[in-house]
Amino acid sequence: MTITTTDKLTLYTNHGCPWAHRAHIALAELGVPFEEVIIDLDTPRTAEYLAVNPRGQVPTLSYNGDIIVESGIVANFLADQYPSHLVPESSAPGGALRRAQIAVFVDAFVSKFQGHLFKFFSAAESERDALVETAVAALVKEVEPRLKDASPYFGGSDKLTLVEVQTGSFIVRLLALGKGGVYPATLLPAIEAQAPNFWAWAQKVAVHPSVTGIFNEDKVVARTRERIAKLRAPKA
Ligand SMILES: N[C@@H](CCC(=O)N[C@@H](CS)C(=O)NCC(=O)O)C(=O)O
């Protein structure tokens, strides 16, 4: 969709960051015009950027000069500010319930599943098989049942929802880093076998243009490998 607005939006971002990617998915899906400022995360933040966001992190959204930080809040704000197919308003019939279901899904995905995937980056070789088992078990318990009516997106929606806005960046990374050999070769086959709802949903999410828009698979795989090498390098 394309939203016509006189609002002035500036997104401070970095295309390698999965958290910032959430804001991009929301903006792409809504079709809201915005200005982009790329923040170099390899060098110390400038005083100018620290004045915008003292945490120095991306994403940051400037909405007509008001600053909004934290990717989940930025994405929720965009979905609320520009009503759309992403999420019903809480006053709509069933709206509050759907919003609660979305929030529960996102919480379960990030805090119960995605957290295990981050651990692969610093895990020793001997810990990796057990980590696959723990991650897949958490996915099966916490995420899989909540996608039983996905068709193809959350809750039977034929368009992206706020669920895919908040999790799509992690889905494309899961598939890319799985195929790219960053995660153990057993991870994706175990997910496909044990979490079929999730697997079918993830295949659709990962090819949606609003999700793939800023995603550079080769670069993300290469950068993640570099990061892992640094984390595993013996400390001087
Ligand atoms: N909780 C934050 C996390 C954002 C975050 O960790 N961004 C990273 C890049 S992926 C960052 O800005 N790192 C730079 C730093 O922490 O100094 C959010 O969801 O917005």
Describe this structure in words.
- The protein is α+β, with helices and mostly antiparallel strands and 236 residues long.
- The chain folds into 2 domains: 73 residues, 3-Layer(aba) Sandwich (Glutaredoxin); 138 residues, Glutathione S-transferase Yfyf (Class Pi), Chain A, domain 2, CATH 1.20.1050.
- It contains 10 helices and 4 strands, in the order βαβαββαααααααα.
- Strands 2-1-3-4 form a 4-stranded mixed β-sheet, covered by helices on one side.
- It is globular and about 55 Å long.
- Bound molecules: glutathione.
Taken from the alpha-carbon principal axes, the silhouette is: globular
What ligand molecules are bound, each kind once? glutathione
CATH architecture of the largest domain: Up-down Bundle
Total of domains? 2
CATH fold naming of the largest domain? Glutathione S-transferase Yfyf (Class Pi), Chain A, domain 2
Q: Which percent band covers the strand fraction?
A: 5-15%
Task: Output the structural class.
Answer: alpha+beta
Average predicted confidence as pLDDT: 96
The radius of gyration over CA amounts to 18 Å
What pattern of helices and strands is seen along the backbone? Answer: EHEHEEHHHHHHHH
Largest sheet: 4 strands, mixed
Low-confidence stretches: none
Helix content: 40-55%
Strand order of the biggest β-sheet: 2-1-3-4
Report the CATH C-level class of the largest domain.
Mainly Alpha
Could you give the count of β-strands? 4
**End-to-end C-alpha gap:** 52 Å
| Count of helix runs | 10
InterPro entries: Glutathione-S-Trfase_C-like, Glutathione-S-Trfase_C_sf, Glutathione_S-Trfase, Glutathione_S-Trfase_N, GST_Omega/HSP26, Thioredoxin-like_sf
